[in-house]
Amino acid sequence: MQRKEILVQKRNYILDTSPELTQKIRLVEKYRPDGTVNPAYPSRLLPYGQMPKSLFLIGEFPDPSGKTAAIVGARSCSAYGKAEARRFAAELASSGVQIISGMASGIDAWAQKGALDVRGRTFSVLGCGVNVCYPRENYSLYREIAEGHGGLISEFAPDALPISWHFPIRNRIISALADIVLVVEARLKSGSLITADYALDQGKTVYAVPGRNDDPLSQGCNRLIAQGAGIATSPEVLLEELGLAAPESKKREKQERQLPPEWKKSEEFRKIFTGLNSREISLADLQEKTGIEMPQLCRVLMQLCMSGYAEEAAPGYYRKTY
Predict the structure, then answer these.
(1) Are 232 and 209 in contact (CB under 8 A)?
(2) pTM strictly above 0.70
(3) For the Smf/DprA SLOG domain, which residue ranges apply (predicted)?
(4) Distance (Å, whole) CA 289 – CA 26
(5) What confidence tens digit (pLDDT) does each residue in 154-200 have?
């Protein structure tokens, strides 16, 4: 009974009025009473016009001395898009990059989950009040961030509902808080392209994950690339842009750490696992890449698939699932 009183659950959002959460809400004004800039206000927003004069916050703002990357994309995304968002975010967060997004369905949520997978920090700029979780299926993600793994940020007052016009305008804050912006899957009229436009106006570097020309979910990304956006073929591309590129030895070590201990002793398992990524690869190409005989390659792939480390994306094509 008490739970119903503190969680107002509607069809598409949850209003959390629990005392535990309410006491965490802070109002951060841009200016102090004497007219000087409040040092608690995010310094990353100061260079740009049309930024809010006050922000509501649960948790923290991104550390101004650290690197930040915004990862945004389609709400109705593909399995490939989810995997890429999670992979890019996890790799960046593993190198200390703070992940900014909007906690929307799809790419936003998977990117923020990827950051939390590796105990990284992630920050949600919401299109509603900070005590409102939208969409409701992201409530566990919302609570995890609220409990000390980053911050929930909004220019809208607590209890403000997720109204459609809130979302395009909050995108200017997402891009302003980020050093770089990555778009993972976007249709030609995606709201993610609004974030990319804000980023370009703010002088930020924009990257996009390329996709098939016949895939509507890739058309927005492909257009960004045609207009000069960077091509995000791997997280290392973004790390290099941020001045955080890891040596090859560390990349291999990070990949191999994900294998069970008994598999790490097998050169074949290591070669095949590191030869896979979240984009599907054919058996023939994987054999050429690893130099392992086809029967043994198929046996190891079967074990990786049965253990949940890989999957057959299409007949004869495999990819990692982490």
Answers:
(1) yes
(2) yes
(3) 38-242
(4) 53
(5) 999 999 999 999 999 999 999 999 999 999 999 998 889 999 999 99
